[in-house]
Give the backbone structure.
Amino acid sequence: MNVFGDKIKLSIFGESHGAGIGIILDGLPVGETLDMDEILRQMARRAPGASALTTSRKEADAPEILSGLFDGHTTGAPLAAIIRNTDTRSKDYDPTHPRPGHADLAAYLKYGGFSDYRGGGHFSGRITAPLVFAGAVCAQILARWDVTVGAHIAAIHNVLDDRFKDPTAEQLTRLSHSPLPLLREDRRAEMETAILEARQAGNSVGGVIECCAVGVPAGLGSPFFGSMESRISAMMYAIPGVKGVSFGAGFDIAAMTGLEANDPIRTDGFNFSTTSNHSGGLNGGITNGMPVILQVAMRPTPSIHQEQETVDLNKMENTTLTIQGRHDPCIAIRAVPVVEAGLAVCLLDAALADA
């Protein structure tokens, strides 16, 4: 079933080239004030057509609130919103030739050819727009609890940014106002060049997003299957194009010794902290009060303008395909607010469940 959450229930509907896409968000606290201008700003960060680094498809991504909001406050009813699709070119898609790297073949085998193939249908990254709406709502509520979520591009292809070290709310907020959020500005030109060169070659590149939340209270989550790593990972892997999720030091921790990997614990007489954060703010599936930090690996966009091997489903023969249409040369850029949104939803859901 297409439902996520324990206390907050989230469901996304729609298809890339259908009439619209949308979300139902149930279980929000009543009487919360929502800043629609801030929600629209977050939506614009994910929206296509913003620069030469993204797809040329133009979508305003303006949510139409159907229920759950009155006079700027949540009412207790499910918060439902729809985003109309306005710029579609369905002629670019052929259901008989599944695109390598996409869900086309898997969807054909599961649904027998009845799923909407246009633009990837319900499997499309377009479906992340409603998730950004939900995350923008949840982030505003978290902010009143002094929790801030933000992210940066940790890598594009083989160009690396620094990793988070002692992140602050101010730093995370600053990053959210950049179209290519980086900790090291001197890496911007090299990353942009890698993306533009891939686009010119009819190819694509992948990337890594590092996301962080500061101000997270200790005690969220529970072992075993309610662990925060489990909840967050489930959300992240629901985002199209995500092929890896790690926390704190991630896979680098496997090369450390126990003494190197452990985070020394300190107290000021009232509160606890650790002098490092290799565990990413999580121990035993529970938040420990340190910043929650995770990395998300995004695959290269599978839609590339080079000839690839595929099959003809009508003839059941091997053939080749050159994908048409408008596509991002690097989906990691527009996925930054999506990853932030996913973490915000998970944290608010856990906070309300453990309240």
Residues 332-353 form the longest helix (22 residues). The first strand starts at residue 9 and ends at 14. The chain has a mean pLDDT of 93.
